[in-house]
Amino acid sequence: MAALLSSMTATASVAAPVMPIAPLTQEANAEDADKTNRLNINTASAQELSAVMIGVGLKRAEQIIKLREQLGGFTELEQLLDVKGIGLKTLEKNQGLIRLD
Fold it and tell me: Which of 15, 16, 30, 95 is the most buried (most CB within 10 A)?
């Protein structure tokens, strides 16, 4: 019996634990986006903003452009919080997708 157990443990392989793979989401992709691939919110059109930004439709994108024009351009991403309907969560989801130049 001891010989049998010994031979079983000698040939048994131990599998590495399997780590679950998180599903890819827009948020995950946003965090990994390279800065050069981010959308410049100071030059983007409303269509571009609504296509790229999470939780931003065409009407909200138009509000972003209106604020951009009033400010003469954004100097901080946090200025997007002045657009009605954009809160901290929306800003956080989009930080990896947008940039200022």
Answer: 30
pLDDT digits (tens, 9 = 90+) for 61-71: 999 999 999 99
Strands 39-40 and 98-99: parallel
Asked if residue 19 belongs to a domain, the reply is no
Which neighbouring-strand residues pair with 40?
99
pLDDT tens readout for residues 74-85: 999 999 999 999
Q: Please measure the distance between the N-terminal and C-terminal CA atoms of the chain and give it in whole angstroms.
A: 74
* Closest by CA position to 77, among listed 67, 26, 36: 67
Q: Has residue 79 been placed in a domain?
A: yes
